[in-house]
Amino acid sequence: MLTAAQTVRNAAIYQFVSQAASPVNLATMKSYLKITATADDVLTQSMIDAVTEWGEKYTGRDFRAITWDLLLDLFTDRIELRRDPVASFTTVKHLVDAALVTVPNTVYYLKKLVQSSEILLNEDQEWPTDTDNREQAIEIRFVTKGYRCQKSIIDAIERHVAFWYRNRGDCPNVKASAEGAGVTAIYNQFRISRV
Prior knowledge:
It is a single chain. Helices cover 32% and strands 26% of the residues. The protein has 6 helices and 8 strands; from the N terminus they run αβααβββββββααα. The chain has helices spanning 4-9, 26-33, 41-59, 150-166, 174-181, 184-188; strands spanning 13-19, 66-72, 78-81, 86-96, 99-102, 108-112, 117-121, 138-144. Strands 1-2-8-4-5 form a 5-stranded antiparallel sheet, with no helix packed on it. It has a 3-stranded antiparallel sheet with strand order 3-7-6, with no helix packed on it. A hairpin with a 2-residue loop joins β4 (86-96) and β5. α3 crosses α4 and α4 crosses α5 (174-181). The longest helix has 19 residues, at 41-59. The protein is elongated and about 60 Å long. The protein starts with a helix and ends in a 7-residue tail after the last helix. Residues 1-8 have low confidence and may be disordered.
């Protein structure tokens, strides 16, 4: 059982490891914009990437496969993965004498929920007790997948990029272009509220 001090101390830090491409590729976006020239390819791709990332942050959901490392100070009975949707997790490691040691996957399992997922202990199992007493002693690597309402997400990304592309001299940033394009109304349907 954790004390109040231990609960407060267990800060969750998410570190980005790698990501797949946006669900909207350059060729599709150029077709949507009715552009055939290649002069703005780099600009258009950077807008796709920025808009995709902004939408993910705004909704709290990953629109593409992303690999994350969750760093924790200590093990708890329920470890919440606050990224959505979780496809799988690859490893749970902890520091023992300053070296990362893999926890056997027979100790735990992934419980998928609607807006987050949890790592729980299997019956009659417990987390290792030899973990170093230091911050970020636990590293959990997991992968999210593209959010299931892809048609709406793709529509929002295309609208967002199109508005920003057409108004790039008058639209200073991604947030302003989202408001101008009206895509926040689409994203609000999928947004995860964090308390």
